[in-house]
Amino acid sequence: MKIVIIGGVAAGTNAAVRARRNSEDAEIVIYDRDVDVAHAGFATHYAVGGRVDSMEELVPYDAQWFKDIYNIDVKTQHEVVKINHDEKTVIVKDLQTGKEVADQYDSLIFANGTVFGTPPVFRDKSFSNVFRIKTVQLGRELQNFINEEKPKSAVVIGAGYIGLGVSEQLTNAGLNVRTLDFLKYPMAQLDHDISTYIADILEENGVTFHGNEGVTELQENGEYLESVTTSLGNEFKADMYIVATGVRPNTELAESIGVELGETRAIKVNEKMQTNLKDVYAVGDIAEAFHAITKKPIYLPLATTASKMGRIAGDVITGGDLTFKGILGTSVVRLFGNTIAGTGMTEELARQDGFEPVVLTSVQSDHLSFMGGKDMIIKAVAHPETERLLGFQIIGPEGVERRIDVLATAMTANMKASELFDIDLAFTPPVSTPKDPVMYTGMALTNAIKNSPLITAKEMYRCIEDKDDITIIDVRDAEAYENEHLENAINIPLKEVRGRLGELDPNSRIAIYCNSGRTSYTAQRILLNRGFKEVYNLTGGLMSFKNLLHDLDNMSKMNG
Amino acid sequence: MKIVIIGGVAAGTNAAVRARRNSEDAEIVIYDRDVDVAHAGFATHYAVGGRVDSMEELVPYDAQWFKDIYNIDVKTQHEVVKINHDEKTVIVKDLQTGKEVADQYDSLIFANGTVFGTPPVFRDKSFSNVFRIKTVQLGRELQNFINEEKPKSAVVIGAGYIGLGVSEQLTNAGLNVRTLDFLKYPMAQLDHDISTYIADILEENGVTFHGNEGVTELQENGEYLESVTTSLGNEFKADMYIVATGVRPNTELAESIGVELGETRAIKVNEKMQTNLKDVYAVGDIAEAFHAITKKPIYLPLATTASKMGRIAGDVITGGDLTFKGILGTSVVRLFGNTIAGTGMTEELARQDGFEPVVLTSVQSDHLSFMGGKDMIIKAVAHPETERLLGFQIIGPEGVERRIDVLATAMTANMKASELFDIDLAFTPPVSTPKDPVMYTGMALTNAIKNSPLITAKEMYRCIEDKDDITIIDVRDAEAYENEHLENAINIPLKEVRGRLGELDPNSRIAIYCNSGRTSYTAQRILLNRGFKEVYNLTGGLMSFKNLLHDLDNMSKMNG
Question: What does the alpha-carbon distance between residue A106 and residue A93 come to, in Å, rounded to a whole number?
């Protein structure tokens, strides 16, 4: 059996190694047009920023190592230029000599990743001071430029996963950084009420962020880019530019032999990573995944999924029974000491998919606050009828990835919201709280579903806008209320609620709020237990409401 | 309805608050003989060591707060001295005035925690320089002593959860600390091959640890303890002493009315926290839990379980349907920058319970090593026939609690070993690895169960002791082999394995090892794929084997 793998990064090498672990007989060849194999290209900006000692640490293995350890033939700087699938042959071009040779396969794996998604204005252009982030080889070019030209400023175009990481690392390397995105906030895959905070983090750490602003024009000076003009008419000048506007699957070669694409324009594969063509597989950033909850196609090129898909294809080809179970779209960014992570569906996506979700926003301490524990904001989305967990987004300085991973595990196992309370999580004062944020989230979701309905900031805003007949109660103390409160809100501090129920109509619609939603929950329970018919708790409290007003650039709904 | 709760720490206050959230009608009274309510007594040593600014931060609430917010009556320094359950009355003594009054209840909750388990030699004695750790009030006494007497040295008796925490914090406070335990290693609930490392951490951080050494004699000087003599005849002198020899359930009062105890000597409760007596509940450190895997009774007094049990009892009494789902025995200690955690069953417990488990020890990096990721040691125990996850123990400087929490979640959801690979965990270079330690653990367990059997260090040691007919192959390079290797091991570096198969008998029993078990797995697969009949991989490699020899005080099985 001969396996030819096109592409030798996470997906391709994992496929090769798994195949070898199952079979000593298989002949395994990897072709990659890059100079490196199995490189950690996803970390090149960390080498630029000094978090990694040297760019070369990102290439711990070479072709000889794969030969010695796994008897796998790795041919770097070799590009598969043509495939004849009827004859099961490939034509491979040696990029150093220009020579082309034919090779044969029994199974073929497309693991040749992505090509850059380039904004129109940059298409077919190349500048000595414009860089892209993907491979270690591109990282070396960037590193050399910085070492030699000592740029003092940079414009980063695109504020996704890579754009944010690069913005942080260039800042750490001492550059003045300006980051643009044509969308309003960074990390467009998150809900607005979370991504607003990311823009704040950038600004607080010296990165100037411009949302809703794409690059529309370039001021060129030969091979040097002088400045860019944006859709808002601003001209931004910098010593260097990073175009971090994402990637798309590199499907051209696969399409040339009739490999079918999915609706995301990545290669359509089944749970065994098989394409529509017999003996042809696709794995990693070139392949389409599916969402573990909705089962719908999803394209999210990440190293975790790539290595998983590679392992599955290598296993299947050599007789194994591994299958792909889909992804939750779990993603995480570390940004100036903060972590922003999400798993599963956002509120927006859940609504698009026809769920009418319960949405909880809460503020939780990573560990006990008297031990120095810092707060994180957790947004949870669940399905009220089935109690199914739909998705989570968390932002904060500590313990974010822990909770996201626990919640991703719970979702993978199809746990219900109420079951989060049952998990026996680790507790000791420097590590967590006796009711871990995960447990608390489960409890609060369950309460909201069962008998303590929540209202989101957006819904509350609409009520106010539409002049709904709703009584809004601020249960914080009088001083906090005087300082600022929602338009039309009346003040009944929690301590006084039991004594002042007579002032309220038990048949009216009531919404209660405090700073974060905890104190108001206590008040909500009092009213509901006393027979009030319709009482809502503003989830995320004033924090969420002010965040929304900030997003809407409209602080007029606040008095005080 | 009137609910009387005896004990106002985690369990009691959670019961009270949950009852109030369900009902405004219930009259709720908490009696506690302590001066504080809802205190974080579990953290007093952190106030002593300076991790918490002031001991008073551990008492954020008082009786007035509970009255104002929850309309709960909290009577501190009030001891329930007698109960007449036929009449549903309690006699309560005001510890400040000595006066006794009667009260009445519909439901009674025992939440009165623990009493100290005192070593015989300390029984009925009290010294001005001997302290115990439990309540904030005891913490204040310890703090006062340290402030006034400025002790320079301490002996900590007991190296469990509390003993370790105190040893660390007194060291941080500048004292010379000597820690004793009558068992060989700290944290007796963990397997020896993990707890050995804890002893090393203590020593590396300046704490002198003495295992297998209990206190047998006291040298007294009035109310001052001069020194202690141990079971090994050593005399240890210090300015102060901490007795951290654990607690037992405080069941005397409950037993006086016929409340039944379980086999752990804690109060027997059902999943609704009900005792054998109608309308009598027990929650927290006084109550027996059950193990979520074995369903057998287990006693593990921890704040997480206490607050969980309290919430359930408060819910049930007021008509709710919460039930207790058992615990996994998850526990965690932070010790001089290291974290030691466990969940589920140890290997020892699994074997005692009749499982013949597959046992995996591996070394995993928290995040990418070129990003500064540090290694953790993960011991995993699973059931081979069903692939059921039985338990995990992890030790390392980073990310330990994250993996334990994910694994506890997976166990709670009854995930199989192979399903750990399917979880979509968060990845970014500063946070994790593309194959997270959890995924890797699942993959390695599955491989071990399916077709790549492991041998533990203990089994390997027995093979050598018994002079079993087994060929031991060291697949590290020649230099490492020359430096040290297992007695009788032959050296075939991994690179040479494919070329030297002819030297080996495919029908013989073979065990392969490297440093940690990863390289040897590759070699194992080559042999098995080439038709070798019986090939084992030494799990945890030389690291685990040397750890065992160290434990056995017998390095003679190593050559080189």
Answer: 20
Chain A residues whose CB is inside 8 A of the B51 CB are 371-372, 429-430
Q: How is the beta sheet containing B490-491 ordered, strand by strand? A: B454-455, B534-538, B509-513, B471-474, B490-491
Q: How many CA atoms lie within 13 A of A474 on its CB side?
A: 22
Q: State the amino acid at position A318 in one-letter form.
A: T
pLDDT digits (tens, 9 = 90+) for B143-197: 999 999 999 999 999 999 999 999 999 999 999 999 999 999 999 999 999 999 9
Instruction: Tell whether A332 lies on the interface with B, counting CB pairs under 8 A.
Output: yes
Cβ within 8 Å of B, A 268-297? 292
pLDDT in tens, B460-484: 999 999 999 999 999 999 999 999 9
Query: Considering only CB atoms, which chain A residues are within 8 Å of B426?
Result: 330-332, 341, 343, 401, 404-405, 408
**All structural domains of chain B:** 2-34+77-114+248-317 (3.50.50.60), 120-245 (3.50.50.60), 337-450 (3.50.50.60), 454-559 (3.40.250.10)
Q: Which helix (H) or strand (E) holds B377?
A: strand B375-383
Angstrom distance (rounded) from CA B368 to CA A240: 28
Interchain proximity A522–B432, CB inside 8 Å: no
3-state secondary structure of B474: strand
Gap between the Cα atoms of B550 and B544, Å rounded: 10
Q: Which residue in B460, B468, B419 sits closest to B547, CA to CA?
A: B460
Judge: B43–A305 Cβ closer than 8 Å, yes or no. Answer: no
pLDDT, average across residues B62-87: 98
Mutation site, A65, A290, A369, A423, interface B, largest B CB count within 10 A = A423
Check B525 against A21: CB less than 8 A apart. Answer: yes
Angstroms from B250 CA to nearest CA on chain A: 21
- Mark the ranges of chain A whose per-residue pLDDT is less than 70: 560
The three-class DSSP label of residue B325 is coil
Query: Among A9, A155, A363, A514, which one carries the catalytic annotation?
Result: A514
Dihedral of CA atoms A180, A183, A185, A188 in degrees, nearest 10, equals -120
The Cα–Cα gap between B18 and B142 comes to 34
B1 — contact with chain A (CB < 8 Å)? no
A75: Cβ–Cβ under 8 A, 6 or more apart, which residues? Answer: A29, A30, A31, A32, A63, A92
Whole-number Å distance between alpha carbons of A302 and A274: 19
Contacts of B60 in chain A (CB under 8 A): 370
The strand order across the sheet containing B100-104 reads B78-84, B89-94, B100-104
What integer pLDDT is reported at residue B559 of this predicted model? 76
Beta strand segments in A345-484, E = 358-365, 375-383, 388-396, 454-455, 471-474
Q: How confident is the model at residue B320 (pLDDT cuts 50, 70, 90)?
A: very high
Interface test with A, best of B13, B328, B423, B518 (most A CBs within 10 A): B423
Active site annotation includes A463: no
Cα–Cα distance for residue pair B22/A528, rounded to 1 Å = 9
A302 Cβ contact partners less than 8 Å away, ≥ 6 residues apart? A331, B427
The DSSP-derived string for A52-112 is: SS-GGGG----HHHHHHHH--EEEETEEEEEEETTTTEEEEEETTT--EEEEE-SEEEE--
Q: Which of A24, A40, A332 is closest, CB to CB, to B529?
A: A24
Q: Which of residues 518-547 of A touch B (CB under 8 A)?
A: 522, 525-526, 529-530
Q: Which residue of A has its CA nearest to B333?
A: A428
Q: How many interchain CB pairs under 8 A, A with B?
A: 233
**Angle, to 10 degrees, between the axis of helix B63-70 and the axis of helix B10-22?**
20
- By Cβ distance, the residue of A43, A53, A343 closest to B429 is A43
Which CB contacts under 8 angstroms, 24+ apart, belong to A233-236?
A234/A210, A236/A155, A236/A178, A236/A180
